[in-house]
Amino acid sequence: MSRSKVHELQAVAAHGGSEPTGTLSPLSSPADDLNQRILRLLQDDGRAAFDVIGQKLGVSGGTIRNRVARMRDAGMLRIVAVVDPVAVDYKADAMLGIKTAPGTGPAALARRLEPHRAVVYIMWVSGRFDLLVEVVCDDETELPIFLDEQIHGHSDIARVEVMTRIGMFKNQFLLKRHVP
């Protein structure tokens, strides 16, 4: 997938997963080179001043302000604060590899698990699992309670593999869930 397509998908995903309606102005298009460069800088620092971004890109701060406003109005960009679970030192976290039970689709199980505060990431995957689900907990007792109440013994789950973190070698943290 091309880099521009990745940025387009990230921008659309950041707006809740649906493409904006209507025709995009070329100045708010994710395919526009300046917009792509603005998005890359905002991904590094969403609080960067428009004047600073403009200096880095060789345009005025007003141009950046206008482009960001157009991308926001078009629904392809949201600037939000994201908390990195590793940085805030959660007491327990795990990645769950889940195989859904026959007759249960991955989307149905994802919808059931998504509302839980401890669930920060759900991905439909290929291979031996149907879903990868990341769970982070403020308290060490919260993870076993979540597993007992939401995972084990539920008829929509055929099997689960619980993988707890032993160490972290790289964490290129990305936005993990839609924030209203």
Q: What fraction strand?
A: 15-25%
As laid out across the biggest beta sheet, the strand order is 2-3-1-4
CATH architecture annotation name of the largest domain: 2-Layer Sandwich
CATH H level, superfamily name of the largest domain = Lrp/AsnC effector binding domain/regulation of amino acid metabolism (RAM) domain
Give me the oligomer status.
single chain
Q: Kindly report the CATH topology of the largest domain.
A: Alpha-Beta Plaits
Shape: elongated
Element order: H for helix, E for strand: HHHHEHEEHE
State the secondary-structure class: alpha+beta
Reading off the top of the CATH hierarchy, the class of the largest domain is best stated as: Alpha Beta
Structure description:
By secondary structure, the chain is of the alpha+beta class. The chain folds into two domains: 3-73, no CATH class; 92-164, Lrp/AsnC effector binding domain/regulation of amino acid metabolism (RAM) domain (Alpha-Beta Plaits, 2-Layer Sandwich), CATH 3.30.70. Helices cover 35% and strands 17% of the residues. The protein has six helices and four strands. It has helices at residues 3-14, 33-44, 50-57, 61-73, 106-113, 142-151; strands at 92-100, 119-124, 131-137, 157-164. It has a four-stranded antiparallel β-sheet, with helices on one face. α3 crosses α4. The longest helix has 13 residues, at 61-73. It is elongated. Mean pLDDT is 79; it is low at 1-22 and 175-180.
